[in-house]
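Supplementary Methods S3. Complex input for the magnesium ion-bound model.
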Amino acid sequence: MTNPRFTVYAPGRVNLIGDHTDYAGGLALPCAIDLGVTIAGIHQPGRVELQTDALEGNVVLDLGTKHDVASIEPRWGRYVAAVAQEVRPSQGFIGSIESTLPTGAGLSSSAALEIALALAMEFNGSQMELALLAQRSELAAVGVPCGLLDQLSIVFGRAGHAMVIDFADNSIEHVAFPEDLDVVVLHSGQERQLADSHYAERRASCELAADRIGPLPKATIADTNTLDGDTRRRARHVVSECERVRQSAVALRENDPTTVGQLMTQSHASLRDDFQVSTPVLDELVDRLNITPGVYGARLTGAGFGGCVVALSDRGAISDPNALSGRGWIVHPTDGARRKTI
Ligand code: ADP
Ligand code: MG
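Predicted complex, serialized as structure tokens:
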């Protein structure tokens, strides 16, 4: 847009290990990445007017009116309305969204959009409040009872670092990411449908398991053996995944990519067999990466049911990620969301 008065930027995130653990109060090891959502705009009273390069349609939102968020079209306007309901901005803006982040790919374009929108609406609370606001907006916009993984990764990202998040208390510890390693992300080409993808059902299974055996991040595999069927499998994933995150954090600090890679590949098997959120395409990409020289391990990343896989490799081992899956990236850990006033 010509002469914007402000720009805001929110990165996406990739989760190196620790999926479907956030809403169970467990652990994850993500980083913010150098693909993201930019909103440029000019302030105006009373209305938010937006267009996006990612999807069809324009959004015009009258800030003085109460909206039925779930019925707004185009669908991406629901995020705009949900964030506006949270922020209650004193002025609107006219602007455009530009994104380098694929949508529906498990790299968290929805949370990046929510956080960029909140910054564009001049939210001025704390970083933690920003993350919590975006989480509530996701629920209001599309009915997904998501955990805080995406929002915390995007808000608290730090260049050159991954972060260990403990969702028991939302504490974050940054871990320097070794410079001689690459994070490779490959798109399966399958757009992930989180709301339709039994996410809520998986979450309910974890809650049922926790009612029986206590908080899953503190439980043992022996505890999960007292459960039955699917509940047992879901709990076994969360319990073992939290342990893999703990071990990965130690190994990353010790610059031991072999161990991190093995844990990533074990994580994929657990997500595939116990949590049952993989797809044949994701499995095939993981297998392909694991036989590529210089790759330490690979797994699906994000909620599953399509989206992306992530791999850890020696720097430069994969020179053309597009050649492996049609669409891929070497991503770098970056700083979190930010506002730039012009
Ligand atoms: P993910 O967060 O993994 O990318 P989601 O299904 O949670 O996938 O969110 C994708 C949705 O977020 C899109 O369908 C769209 O509604 C919204 N969205 C994301 N990025 C943009 C963008 N740049 N412009 C408009 N809407 C976007
Ligand atoms: Mg999302």
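The pocket of adenosine-5'-diphosphate (ligand 1) is lined by residues 37, 52, 54-55, 75-76, 79, 97, 99, 103-110, 113, 192, 194, 302 (CB under 6 Å). The longest helix spans residues 229-253.
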